[in-house]
């Protein structure tokens, strides 16, 4: 059953009969030019963190004989992504629930950063929910999968690090064409996610996307706090999306603050 489709693959649900569980199959749209060494490096990084409860579990990879396409075998998220989850459940969430949701994301990102991995594309559709537990998905996919499915050094590779949703992208991305993302780039996107959990709404709803990058970079546009948000939580996400990457907290600092709320 088709679940979704991204920039690099089709996602379907399936039953793993011998194990008695439901899984997700993410099939790469174009496996014709896969570089085996890059693919192996990407899979090695997946295995480094897939043990964590707040990171989507990776079970392995297979190749469909008829189509010759690779498919990653992943944990199935029975409640969709964070955007979908908030649309259905937000009105029933208490602040204790929202803080736990934020902690789920932060704990997953803490593991990635400890392993010296950068997500590069944090947004609400890359956070999946399974039995009310939030899990980070598609980490590194923006850059590493593009590299793994190309054996050339064309412009696609050179710009792969900039792939992402504008609403969650730091201002530096719009200032420098060859901007290289860092852990602080992830922290910026995390700040937007923390706001989204507090509001239950997508960021910058109603603002035309072609104008959004200009507003974020030139006008320092950020979302307004939601009434009733705990002050320290509000201050935290505002620190995360600070214009200056050096002023954003690291993931350890974010974790320490959230655990005290």
UniProtKB/TrEMBL annotation:
<dbReference type="Pfam" id="PF07714">
    <property type="entry name" value="PK_Tyr_Ser-Thr"/>
</dbReference>
<dbReference type="InterPro" id="IPR011009">
    <property type="entry name" value="Kinase-like_dom_sf"/>
</dbReference>
<dbReference type="GO" id="GO:0005524">
    <property type="term" value="F:ATP binding"/>
</dbReference>
<keyword id="KW-0547">Nucleotide-binding</keyword>
<dbReference type="InterPro" id="IPR051681">
    <property type="entry name" value="Ser/Thr_Kinases-Pseudokinases"/>
</dbReference>
<dbReference type="InterPro" id="IPR001245">
    <property type="entry name" value="Ser-Thr/Tyr_kinase_cat_dom"/>
</dbReference>
<dbReference type="InterPro" id="IPR017441">
    <property type="entry name" value="Protein_kinase_ATP_BS"/>
</dbReference>
<dbReference type="InterPro" id="IPR000719">
    <property type="entry name" value="Prot_kinase_dom"/>
</dbReference>
<keyword id="KW-0067">ATP-binding</keyword>
<feature type="binding site">
    <location>
        <position position="26"/>
    </location>
    <ligand>
        <name>ATP</name>
    </ligand>
</feature>
<keyword id="KW-0808">Transferase</keyword>
<protein>
    <submittedName>
        <fullName>Kinase-like protein</fullName>
    </submittedName>
</protein>
<dbReference type="GO" id="GO:0004674">
    <property type="term" value="F:protein serine/threonine kinase activity"/>
</dbReference>
<feature type="domain" description="Protein kinase">
    <location>
        <begin position="1"/>
        <end position="261"/>
    </location>
</feature>
<keyword id="KW-0418">Kinase</keyword>
């Amino acid at each position: 059953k088709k679940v979704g489709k991204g920039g690099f693959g089709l996602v379907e649900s399936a039953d793993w009969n011998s194990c008695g569980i439901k899984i997700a199959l993410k099939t790469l749209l174009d496996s014709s030019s896969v570089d085996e060494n890059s693919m192996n490096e990407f899979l090695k990084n997946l295995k480094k963190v897939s043990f964590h409860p707040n990171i989507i579990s990776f079970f392995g990879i297979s190749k469909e004989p008829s189509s010759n396409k690779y498919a990653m075998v992943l944990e199935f998220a029975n409640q969709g992504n964070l955007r979908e989850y908030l649309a259905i459940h937000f009105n029933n969430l208490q602040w204790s629930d929202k803080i736990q949701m934020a902690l789920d994301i932060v704990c997953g990102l803490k593991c990635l950063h400890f392993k010296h991995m950068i997500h590069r594309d944090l947004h609400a559709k890359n956070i999946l929910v399974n039995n009310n537990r939030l899990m980070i998905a598609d980490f590194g996919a923006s850059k590493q999968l593009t590299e793994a499915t190309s054996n050339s050094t064309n412009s696609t590779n050179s710009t792969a690090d900039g792939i992402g949703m504008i609403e969650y992208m730091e201002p530096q991305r719009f200032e420098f064409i060859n901007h290289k993302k860092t852990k602080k780039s992830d922290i910026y996107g995390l700040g937007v996610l923390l706001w989204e959990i507090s509001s239950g709404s997508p960021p910058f709803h109603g603002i035309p996307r072609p104008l959004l990058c200009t507003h974020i970079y030139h006008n320092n546009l950020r979302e307004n706090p939601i009434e009733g948000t705990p002050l320290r939580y509000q201050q935290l996400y505002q620190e995360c999306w600070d214009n200056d990457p050096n002023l954003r907290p690291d993931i350890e600092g974010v974790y320490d603050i959230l655990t005290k709320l």
